[in-house]
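lol forgot to send this yesterday, sorry. struct tokens for the thing we talked abt
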């Protein structure tokens, strides 16, 4: 009986420790554009591929695409955040190439380092992930893109709380296991 109680308690402690490493709920509305429109987003010169069309999507039925020539289109959304909290943004991007192209992501008014692409070669769906720290209760995400004369495709935009790294979760798990071992030794004597 004591052995079963010990194993059950160890399982609960492990489950709690692992949950610390799991991210929080999704903050972006309609990040895969699966409503069939730009619900939740503000857009200018950005388009949705038609269902069943020949334009690529990463997953689902829809993806946004930036195909403006001579100027940037944009796609933006304001999300609720907590000042000082770290968040992870993830998105999938595909580039059909073109004589001149640019793509970037701004968090509030600052361009996110590493997100800027200028005259990038053609590439298939690529996942981009960045961490950022919120500075207020609302954070504005803005994607900018221009493609002369083809397109950048954007899909599966996601923002979540950055998870606590698993090593930190294990720091919580280790003392719990040590305590359980001490209790087991005490009752088996």
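and heres what i got for the seq, position by position
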């Amino acid at each position: 009986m004591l052995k079963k109680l010990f194993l059950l308690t160890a399982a609960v402690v492990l489950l709690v420790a692992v949950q610390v490493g799991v991210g929080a709920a999704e903050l972006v509305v309609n990040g895969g554009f699966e409503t069939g429109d730009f619900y939740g987003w503000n857009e200018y010169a950005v388009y949705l591929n038609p269902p069943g069309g020949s334009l690529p999507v990463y997953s689902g039925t829809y993806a946004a695409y930036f195909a403006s020539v001579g100027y940037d289109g944009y796609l933006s959304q304001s999300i609720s955040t907590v000042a000082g909290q770290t968040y992870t943004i993830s998105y999938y991007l595909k580039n059909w190439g073109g004589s001149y192209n640019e793509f970037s992501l701004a968090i509030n008014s600052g361009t996110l380092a590493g997100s800027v692409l200028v005259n990038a070669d053609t590439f298939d769906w690529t996942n981009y992930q960045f961490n950022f720290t919120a500075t207020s209760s609302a954070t504005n995400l803005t994607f900018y893109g221009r493609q002369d004369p083809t397109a950048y495709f954007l899909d599966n935009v996601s923002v979540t709380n950055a998870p606590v790294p698993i090593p930190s979760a294990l720091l919580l798990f280790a003392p719990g296991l040590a305590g359980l071992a001490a209790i087991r030794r005490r009752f088996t004597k």
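The longest strand covers residues 123-133. anyway ping me if u want another try
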